[in-house]
Design a protein that fits this description.
It contains 25 helices and 18 strands. By secondary structure, the chain is of the alpha/beta class. The chain has four domains: 196 residues, Rossmann fold; 78 residues, no CATH class; 181 residues; 198 residues, Rossmann fold (3-Layer(aba) Sandwich). A hairpin with a 2-residue loop joins strand 8 and strand 9.
């Protein structure tokens, strides 16, 4: 139960916030504050989870922080705000949270946390600069790990970064460097957790990653992202962030949480790439043997590591023709072969069992090697130069990471499905690796994240809030619960946004619209009518569900109209939005043609978007292995995959697409949906009823 002192802090903080910012209290925001405060103060642990759909304009960041921060301090817990993107992390830590704390006159401390890969490694920086010198001398330091072939421009960049780290003008965060850094350049400067020697590193006191971690220990609020939270939970919790039982998680952009968990807990192995990597190991072991010859115990480990790597190489080579045989059955267009019900068959399962056994043993040997190298780094009298130990430590770390990835995949493939359990999705895919080369990737993934999140997050944390502007589909939270494992005991709430939808905008479905599944006629209808829908001297956003249809429409339009259009793929999404806004600011007409990524998260207030045109109902094309596997499982249990999966997902996507129109309280405009199925199919009314209460013009001439 919420104690009186904490309640007073929340109420006074909210009053000060409104007064300082000159705002009126919003009903939805007040409801959100109250719901979160009551949920987090519940004595029943099963009820300390609230799911809140907060419509655009609610001010959900204020809503969840006003309630959560005082309660967390009273309970001696840490608030972990998890977002869907690093961009939103930056906005929260640099703008939204400081403004809130200042307005409330609160002294809570906040820290930004990112994955290790977002920070430069001082040791790698030194090694890269040494590598450049070595390359000039005909030597090479990183041939085993990556194609690091720096030019003069790269050398200049690295020296500037090194100087900035040394003089404190840069904190080592990739996102805070003032110019673009290519991925190949950045990857040379980072390490993963297996390559990092932690407190034994001679740069630990200057390490950007560890400096950022130090801030976490004394912070009331940590701003993370979903990927980082999943990484921490995969390690058991408490490895990167505080232990879950000491955290109140706020999952902003919560509609992305399930997909993030699935992606994070999936596994993949590219056969030829892995073989190439494994085949280098004998040479690498032989190269290290003379350097570490005086450490007999360590040197004796190398032939065993080499032998086990050779055995795994042999087994993968044996697996390749079995996989190729299945791959030959694949759809030529997609280049994907999915194993029905996740059953890879006896032959592949048998060899997967052998790969799992040998990889598990190899991983154990590599961990012994890691321990030996840790001891070497700590021993001031060790007979090998520290830079040589550091290089081998990173090389061994690469082996360890590779072994863990191998084990994660093949361990999934060798297990037979227990009757009644949800299967893994397992599939093969032809990957283009460049230069006309292809590789077979083997993939295994959970088809839903419900059990993972139920066990690792909801069942482990002190409390949580799951929120987003769009969480319901078809007017309920059922799909969200199925995808994320949120229990029935949670508090569910949907609060309206700040808009008068009926006054601000209209929703139109023209009477001559064509059903979206009649592809050719539907495409022609768009071509014939799109010009009349373009708003003059303002912005129009046209959203397509199919890249092919988007391109066909674009190709058939007259040149005068094409000149006004920015089509996805022509530029990056960010550059498209910038150019679009620039045109509008200059008093010109501009049209954006976009796909799913433009239907979510794109912010085009005012004249930047007065008309959203949705080409057709956003039903997912059932060619993704995960979607196919989920549909197959539901059908096998007597369900209907269209009504259980496709329709709710289309509802969610349609709501998100319509949400691109009104971004501020002063916005006005029109949403037009060019798919007659909204009027002719029985499910059309369900989809319409779930949309915001725009003024309706259905079947207009």
């Amino acid at each position: 139960m919420l104690d009186a002192d904490t309640r007073d802090i929340i109420q006074e903080g909210y009053r000060k916030f409104l007064e300082t910012r000159g705002l009126q209290a919003r009903l939805g925001q007040k409801q959100m504050v109250a719901a979160i405060a009551n949920s987090l103060s519940d004595d029943d642990a099963d009820k300390r989870l609230s799911v809140i759909e907060a419509g655009t304009g609610t001010g959900k960041t204020v809503g969840y922080l006003i309630a959560a921060l005082p309660i967390a301090r009273a309970l001696k817990k840490t608030v972990v705000v998890s977002t869907g993107t690093i961009a939103l992390q930056e906005q929260l830590i640099h703008k939204d949270i400081p403004e809130l704390l200042e307005a409330c006159d609160w002294d809570y401390s906040c820290a930004l946390v990112k994955g290790r890969g977002r920070y430069a490694c001082n040791l790698r920086m030194e090694q890269c600069l040494d590598s450049i010198k070595a390359k000039d001398a005909g030597l090479f330091l990183f041939e085993d790990e990556q194609q690091f072939n720096p030019n003069a421009q790269t050398e200049t960049l690295f020296r500037e970064m090194s100087d900035a780290l040394e003089d404190g003008t840069w904190n080592g965060d990739r996102d805070s460097w003032d110019t673009h850094i290519k991925d190949i350049e950045w990857s040379a400067l980072t390490v993963d957790r297996r390559q990092c020697s932690g407190r034994r590193c001679r740069f630990v006191n200057q390490c950007p990653f560890f400096k950022a971690r130090t801030d976490l220990e004394e912070s009331d609020c940590i701003v993370a992202n979903h990927d980082l939270v999943m990484a921490d939970l995969a390690l058991g919790g408490g490895a990167i962030l505080p232990p879950p039982e000491d955290c109140i998680y706020i999952c902003d952009e919560g509609h992305r949480l399930g997909d993030t968990a699935i992606r994070h807990f999936g596994a993949q192995c590219r056969i030829n790439s892995t073989l190439t990597w494994l085949e280098r190991i004998p040479k690498q072991c032989k190269g290290q043997a003379p350097i570490f010859g005086k450490d007999t115990a360590l040197a004796e480990q190398l032939p065993r590591i080499e032998k086990e790597a050779a055995k795994i190489t042999e087994l993968l080579s044996m697996a390749y023709p079995l996989l190729k045989e299945q791959m030959d059955k694949a759809d030529d267009y997609e280049g994907i072969y999915r194993f029905s019900h996740g059953d890879v068959g006896t032959a592949i399962r048998d060899i997967a069992t052998q790969i799992t056994q040998h990889t598990s043993g190899w991983l154990g040997r590599l961990e012994v090697l890691e321990d030996s190298l840790n001891e070497a780094l700590s021993d001031k009298q060790y007979p090998v130069a520290t830079p040589d130990i550091e290089l081998f430590y990173q090389q061994a770390g690469t082996w360890l990471s590779g072994a863990e990835r191998l084990l994660a995949l093949w361990d999934r493939l060798h297990k037979e499905l227990q009757q009644g359990n949800m299967p893994m999705a397992c599939w093969l895919k032809l990957d283009d690796t460049g230069g006309g080369n292809v590789d077979i990737s083997v993939n295994a993934s959970p088809i839903q994240a419900a059990e993972i999140l139920r066990e690792r997050l909801w069942g482990s944390c002190y409390g949580a809030v799951l929120t987003s502007a769009t969480l319901r589909s078809l007017g309920n939270f059922n799909t969200l619960q199925r995808e994320t494992g949120v229990p029935d005991s949670a508090h569910f709430l949907s609060v309206v946004g700040a808009f008068d939808y009926a006054k601000a905008a209209s929703l139109r479905v023209p009477s001559d619209a064509v059903e979206g599944n009649n592809v050719d006629d539907h495409t022609q209808h768009i071509v014939d009518n799109i010009e009349s829908m373009v708003e003059k001297k303002t912005g129009t956003l046209v959203l397509f569900s199919s890249r092919r249809q988007m391109q066909q429409v674009h190709e058939e339009l007259p040149n005068d109209l094409v000149k006004l259009i920015l089509i996805q793929g022509q530029y990056s999404n960010r550059e498209m939005v910038r150019l679009h806004k620039e045109r509008i600011d200059q008093g010109s007409t501009s049209v954006l043609f976009g796909l799913a990524s433009f239907a979510e998260g794109v912010d085009l207030p005012g004249d930047y978007c007065r008309h959203v045109v949705i080409a057709k109902l956003p039903f997912a094309v059932p060619n993704e292995p995960l979607q196919q596997a989920l549909a197959e499982w539901i059908e096998a249990r007597g369900g209907n995959s269209f009504f259980d999966i496709s329709l709710p997902l289309a509802s969610l996507r349609l709501i998100q697409a319509c949400g691109r129109l009104l971004r501020t309280e002063s916005d006005t405009g029109t949403v037009t949906i060019l798919d007659k199925r909204l009027l002719t199919k029985r499910y059309g009314k369900q989809l319409l009823d779930a949309l915001p209460p725009f003024r309706r013009e259905l079947g207009y001439e």
